[in-house]
Amino acid sequence: MRTARLEAFSDGVLAFIITIMVLELQRPTGSTLHALLGDPLKGLFTYLLSFVYIGIYWSNHHHMFQLVRRVDGAILWANLGLLFFLSLVPYSTSWMDAHGGATVPVTVYGVNLLGAALAYYVLQQAIFRAEGPQSLLRQALGRDLKGKLSPVIYIVGIVGSLVSVWVGIVAYVAVAVIWLVPDRRAERFINAHLVPED
Length: 198
Prior knowledge:
Layout: H1 4-23, H2 33-36, H3 39-66, H4 73-87, H5 89-98, H6 103-131, H7 136-141, H8 145-161, H9 165-180, H10 184-193
Helix pairs in contact: 1-3, 1-4, 1-5, 3-5, 3-9, 4-6, 5-6, 6-8, 6-9, 8-9
């Protein structure tokens, strides 16, 4: 089957996730700039971090499926696994926002991010198996240093957050920054090998 329905469903889920997160934001209790400081500002930070993560997954998912011609059942289920972990982001974000200085919420947020990263890897592997050794996605990813480095940093953040929540938060921000830096090689590969629609 073609990828259009999978992409449309995934786009809808990710848009809904962002909507849920923004609705969870705590409003300032007053109308002054001082009222924004404290918990509402912390909430804006956690929302921004999670929004960036959802945006990164949406962008990478979009690029990924530009290089995939057809999907099978394994790809559909792997994609649902990714969406499952991403759908938990509003929950872990809200908990971390409410108790940002607490170890367990920051650790759980990292576990959530690690789960999404591993689910994304499983989705890539399902695509590789379905398309064989000549997979355009496999060629485009190359050594995939970012993909291999990210789970390591998440694990450092998860373990580090048990010592200090700031170690975890810095690690999670670092991964987001790594992925925000655009990879021009991938863009050029996609433009050169764009899979035509049937």
